[in-house]
Amino acid sequence: MQVPAPFEYERATSVDQAIGLLERLGSSARLVAGGHSLLPMMKLRLANFEYLIDINPLHDQLGYIRVGSDSVRIGALTRHRELLESDELASAFPIFRDAERVIADPVVRNRGTLGGSLCQADPSEDLSAVCTTLDASCVIRGPRGERVVTMEQFHVGPYETAVGDDEILIEIRIPRRDNSGNAYEKVERRAGDWAVVSAGAAMWLAADGTIADARVGLAAVGPNTTGIPEISATLRGQVPSEQAYEQAGVIAARSCDPVTDQRGSEDYKRHLADELTRRTLRKAVERARS
Amino acid sequence: MTTVQDPKFTEFHDNDQKPVGFGRMLRKEDPRFVRGRGRYTDDIQLPGMLHLAILRSPFAHARVLSVDTSAAEASPGVRLVVTGAMLAEKGLAWMPTLSNDVQAVLATDKVRFQGQEVAFVVADDRYAARDALELIEVDYDVLEPVIDARRALEPDAPLIRDDLQGKENNHVFDWETGDEAATEAVFASADVVVQEDIVYPRVHPAPMETCGAVADFDAVEGKLRLWSTTQAPHAHRTLYAIVSGIPEHKIQVISPDLGGGFGNKVPIYPGYVCAIVGSILTGKPVKWMEDRSENLISTGFARDYIMRGEIAATRDGRILAIRTNVLADHGAFNGTAAPVKYPAGFFGVFTGSYDLQAAYCKMTAVYTNKAPGGVAYACSFRITEAVYLVERIVDCLAHELDMDPAELRLKNFIQPDQFPYETKTGWVYDSGNYEPTMRLAMDMAGYADLRKEQEEKRARGELMGIGISFFTEAVGAGPRKNMDILGLGMADGCELRVHPTGKAVVRLSVQTQGQGHETTFAQIVAEEIGIPPADIEVVHGDTDQTPFGLGTYGSRSTPVSGAAAALVARKVRDKAQIIASGMLEVSVADLEWVKGSFQVKGDPGKSVTIQDIAFRAHGAGDLPEGVEGGLEAQICYNPSNLTYPHGAYICVVDIDPGTAQVKVRRFVAVDDCGTRINPMIIEGQIHGGLTDGVGMALMEMIAFDEDGNCLGASLMDYLIPTSLEVPDWETGYTVTPSPHHPIGAKGVGESATVGSPPAIVNAVVDALKPFGVRHADMPLTPSRVWDAMRGRATPPI
Ligand SMILES: Cc1cc2nc3c(=O)[nH]c(=O)nc-3n(C[C@H](O)[C@H](O)[C@H](O)COP(=O)(O)OP(=O)(O)OC[C@H]3O[C@@H](n4cnc5c(N)ncnc54)[C@H](O)[C@@H]3O)c2cc1C
């Protein structure tokens, strides 16, 4: 049994109470959501915190999926499993179900949360790539009230986000537009493993069938989950075609920044960035059209 | 609601069928496991028990300058802190390994691999023990490590084992087998010679339960009780006695339920010794359970062979000779568990299932700054490596000759009338009938159709591969005239006692780690004396309760202890026959055995059951002249030879040409393990082994960075396969009984682990044929497959 260093534990009773505790305890405290990133690090003693504030009691308030006509709002404490199983979410944004099917395993998905995933900001994490692809924004609350940031602003660096020591990520907001489709693909060495590379793509088509907007988000190919503006710029206005996807794939391979590790060589990862970008764009267009 | 049952599922049950002897039946031990009532080492709780945690080296190679334990000793709840220096004072800092090397219990001079034991803490609970480790200050002088075995013998390589008197390099041993000159002569005149460098990377058995022990030394009785995760309780007891000086009759080793072993639990680990020392010094029971990372980085690994294979053949595909040169990485201490005269285990069977004119192997083993061990993991003493080598090199030959790999194998098999067959490396294969096994596998797979499908797919640019492996194993070590571990002969005892009411207890020297001994051995005894398996208690794993024997590994339980169980039952039956002759008032010769009772020949109405006889054996009234009361016997079985199971495996894979991901679509496994005792248990062993094979072929590897940091220290880093990576196994069988085994059975525990990796790799390589690929090393992760597709296949190390 792996044993973490001693720590104090408190269950949150409300968001404001949790913020109050964070304010008082500063960087020696951490929120625990699903615990599937935090606890393994603590058990390996890669991270030691004096206080854990458990926000699971707030699941009633922070665990929700609200699908509106122009946006979808998802509470930070929504679990992977809830994201996987929501038909409403899958019909608005099929990319979520694509991704959730290949994130970890059922045991992790039963507990792990959207907020925890984003706040962990692991470069290989999948939901950040999904949110980047969908141009989501993040609602952060702290002692001084609420603020809303884009995914680009949210990710400050590997394992670093815009969420301050005394703040909590509350909600993710995703804009909805018509004629859109999106998809996610991941290559892993084994079911339940982190991505070698994964890619998400979203396509918005204009009435004439050309690409009104397109976004690609990649995971595991750089210090941060990578959104690639150049792909969007290149695709906008084009008619969807293999050639267009190929262009996007080439840009993806060129603009990412993978490193060689046990999961694969840098070359291979660039190749996958290309291949998966093409595959997901293709599927996103199919979905936008149907 | 209707429930749909997979029709195949019913095959796993006997339903209401309860065989008195061989046949399918549910495992007797399973109710306790599925109901959470198993009792593992970590479940042992003793009054006043303390907990032990081990401080391990963060470095692969470093001099230990000083160890300061004062802060740890002052930490709350801490009872004891022990360093290598303290053990050295008691002469316990070093212990012998199973290969006559020594291994540090706690480092005194240097640490020689990352994860090596440096000090231990005993405290009131496991948390206090673990926290105190952080307070031990060790001053290290970091040295250059030797990580790549190919560097170990370079003249300027750092010397790892400066503890060994006069040692000037990192050489462990040289070993050779076969006839070098004869082999060279065959190679020199052969039409075709193929050479390939083949690496079997280091992997780890990774049993679900990690290693651990509870030591309880009673100073008044002078008795040590040790519950430990061991596959060989008797051998361990003897070694503890020799090392510690505690007399053997005052040591009781108990191996309770084990959560998997796979060879990982054959060696004696420093942790067990630390627990014993901790209990002696504190006067309390002490528990040590390693965590997952400790298990992965410090306990017995497997494989790590860098092999050069060469095969010589005629142009029309007659295989003439095989030659190999092996560099074996043994880690920091030579902890290989193998019979003493076999430093390379049974690697000598690398000649496979083929009738050769010559064969030769030369091996060099070296020390590196990696964890010791070396022969764990369902490998039948290095047969895994041997089978991989021969089945890979035969496929390379098929590639070169542009010949179908099935046809090539069929053409070269040892023929049924050649058995017993002595190989060119001196192994006497007891029996075999290879072609029917191969043909059955090909029929089950629909081999010809698969090749047609492959051709069509290739034309469309799809990547499909068909891989074959045909293996012969040598299991059941072994004849005591040439097999022993540290001087202990590899024969197994067995005792059988029939109680007055006809129920029985059989005591085994071997220990189950999940193989189902409590069922299989009850069935073996049942088959011989006709007492139903449900009425036979199988006792194992406790040295105070069972006769001496060397334990379960190398697929030896059924070949050795299974034979012992059958023979001891026959002894009991012989005695029962004499008692029956008295009961029926006829001569012994006039009785015939009809399973479960003795009948008077020609008069089926006159008979006594084994239960009647058992009662009479313990009851009132006279027994025949010279017969003592009771109905029991004991035996020590010394096998006359190993048993040689074989099998034909066919694997079908699909590879995504865009991502290079391999999907194992089908796997057909036809095994021949001789007489089949419980087919369900055999299938379970096969399913598990095949899954292991998928792991090794596609994902498993204990890798190190250049500083010697282990990159597989958790199950997030060291991948083992899940149900999602494996297909629905298609199993079949043929039966070629062993001629020398009392019931004709051969071992099967490791067959699938041994036989499946080459089938999978051969399938992947076959799929990559359009890219001109002839070989690619394991693990065939997507990235490595992609490299192979681009003509850049590289060894994993
Ligand atoms: C075996 C395994 C496999 C996995 N595989 C994958 C995978 O393939 N893909 C993938 O994407 N992920 C994977 N994960 C990670 C998993 O998805 C985690 O659940 C997730 O990364 C973290 O979510 P959590 O709710 O468990 O967060 P926690 O571990 O509880 O928290 C993580 C961090 O976020 C902070 N935090 C949590 N919630 C908030 C909040 N509302 N506001 C501010 N800070 C917060 C915590 O303080 C902590 O620092 C895997 C995990 C495991 C154990």
TrEMBL record, chain B:
Domain Aldehyde oxidase/xanthine dehydrogenase a/b hammerhead: 35-144
EC code(s) of this entry: 1.2.5.3
MF GO annotations: carbon-monoxide oxygenase activity
Gene3D superfamilies, alphabetized: Aldehyde oxidase/xanthine dehydrogenase, a/b hammerhead, Aldehyde oxidase/xanthine dehydrogenase, molybdopterin binding domain
Coiled coil: none
Entry keywords, A to Z: Molybdenum, Oxidoreductase
Alphabetized InterPro entries for the sequence: Ald_Oxase/Xan_DH_a/b, Ald_Oxase/Xan_DH_a/b_sf, Ald_Oxase/xanthine_DH-like, AldOxase/xan_DH_MoCoBD1, AldOxase/xan_DH_MoCoBD2, AldOxase/xan_DH_Mopterin-bd_sf, CO_Mo_DH_lsu
SUPFAM superfamilies given in the database record: CO dehydrogenase molybdoprotein N-domain-like (SSF54665), Molybdenum cofactor-binding domain (SSF56003)
Keyword Oxidoreductase: yes
Protein name stated in the entry: Aerobic carbon-monoxide dehydrogenase large subunit
